[in-house]
Amino acid sequence: MDSITHPASTPSTPSLLRRIVAFPLTLMIIGFVWISVVAAGVGQAYQQLGFARNTPEKSFGAVLMAVAVVLGYKAYKRWIERAEDTELPLSGAMPELAAGIAIGTVLFSLMTGIVALMGGIEFLGLRGAGQIWTMLAIAVVSGTMEEVLFRGIVLRHMETLIGTWGSLAFTSALFGALHITNPDATWFSSLAIALEAGILLGAAYLLTRRLWLAIGIHAAWNFTQGWIFSVPVSGGEAPLGLLITRRIGPDWLTGGDFGLEASVVAMVVATLAGLALLAFAVRRGQVVAPMWRRGKSAT
Fold this sequence. Notes:
Elements: H1 16-21, H2 24-47, H3 56-81, H4 93-117, E1 121-126, H5 132-178, H6 187-208, H7 212-228, E2 243-247, H8 251-254, H9 264-283, H10 291-298
Antiparallel strand pairs: 1-2
Helix pairs in contact: 2-3, 2-5, 3-5, 4-7, 4-9, 5-6, 5-7, 6-7, 6-9
């Protein structure tokens, strides 16, 4: 009996539209806009319920927004990138999130302790719960949304184009520059944010290639400075936190009205921690070459 030979199937060539959408810069823009719209939509919808500020209900709304951002990212990965979600997998999320929370809490506490030893902050007493629900909401939303946007979307897609070092420098500078619009921001506060947060959070993503560690660090950093130490978060009003504190001394030490994030101490401590995580990432071989160098290597 004669065998029947079937012609080998050839993969279909993507359409022009798909090739345009799949280009890293296009994916970055679509992802950034999509996640922003998802977060804004959920936030507006929950706000219509009219819950009072600094209540558990408000914090629950922040958790809902964070969940919506994570689900929105997963939808973006599946239907826009058409790729597996490796940045926000549920498997292993809790240990990395817990590690990030521990790192963020310890780092800000260490930096505050150094500033106190240098005479830049005084501890005047214990307040109690204060604005715990407000600060928890801010920590959850900022930690989740900003890490998905800046590390999960911008850094990752820019890395495909210009490599790890270029994308880390770009996202760090962008992250710092966007904070110039915050109340009481200065060029130095933006520089401090670019170095301490841009490098630290970028390195946390590069080390694991997932976002949970960076989310934990970011959320814990904001919650610790705002609720535990009653320090302004990126230029906002000083919240009523657990401890009654007073910052005294020069702006380079205390961060001025922007908060301790703009302190030279914070910039040094957090940047060194970021460089340490970055060194571990390099040892793990997590550095990606720019697109043009990868092309030469392939050739």
